[in-house]
Design a protein that fits this description.
Rossmann fold; globular; about 220 residues; 4-stranded parallel beta sheet; alpha/beta
């Protein structure tokens, strides 16, 4: 528990009402990503497809991507509270939401997108790692840190798709001295364009992984 959580009363990250990190009413109202999706990137579609307009023609290094929530409604507010206000205990609730919506991956271990060192220091924790650790407990899978940040790219927020891919092209590398299993699930907090997760998956495959699946808490949906 952080010092902030000790000093301030517990309030819902969505509506601000006292009592819990995420009240039951707000939890039920969070927009789920349900219905037909793209088999490859997990984008919502009018009917099930193997490739959608968002991922068709793109080189993507992961086998599939799935998310529990749409990054809409109160979700950005909840994610912002979790990541920027240090509400670490939200990771337990958010992992439960993921496990309710996404089937357990058929992999041998979980890993996560590594955080920038400076950002992790300023926040005091690493959101994607905390989510992965909670999911590892739920799914009874080991968590193994397999990637390191090797560059200092700009923040992805606000960049176009082509810029996002270039920005993180050389930002991740396999962790030295660690042999990854053949099948791995990469955990992230928000899937926006897939650029970061694809670069991470590529690094994992260079290290020996044969299949990389991606699971994120929430997915941003681009306007068509």
């Amino acid at each position: 528990m952080s010092l902030l959580e000790l000093l301030l009363p517990l309030r819902c990250a969505a509506c601000g009402e006292p009592g819990s990190e995420l009240c039951e009413r707000c939890r039920e109202r969070l927009p789920r990503l349900c219905g037909p999706i793209c088999e490859r990137c997990g984008a919502p579609t009018a009917w099930p497809v193997a490739r959608c307009l968002e991922c068709a023609g793109r080189r993507i290094s992961f086998a599939s991507a799935r998310s529990a929530l749409l990054y809409a409604g109160a979700v950005p507010r909840v994610v912002g509270a979790w990541k920027e206000r240090g509400l670490r205990r939200l990771a337990v609730v958010l992992a439960e939401l993921v496990a309710e919506a996404v089937p357990p991956p058929q992999v041998q271990a979980l890993t996560c997108v590594p955080a920038q060192h400076e950002r992790a220091l300023s926040r005091g924790f690493h959101p994607a790692r905390s989510l992965a650790l909670e999911l590892a407990l739920i799914w009874e899978l080991p968590f193994v840190p397999l990637l390191d940040r090797v560059g200092s790219p700009r923040r992805q927020r606000g960049l176009a798709l082509s810029e996002r891919s270039r920005n993180v092209a050389a930002a991740f590398a396999p962790r030295r001295g660690v042999s990854p299993p053949p099948r791995i699930c990469l955990i992230d907090d928000v899937y926006t364009s897939g650029a970061t997760t694809s670069v991470c998956a590529s690094a994992l495959r260079r290290a020996g992984c044969r299949r990389v699946e991606v699971i994120a808490l929430a997915r941003a949906v681009r306007e068509s």
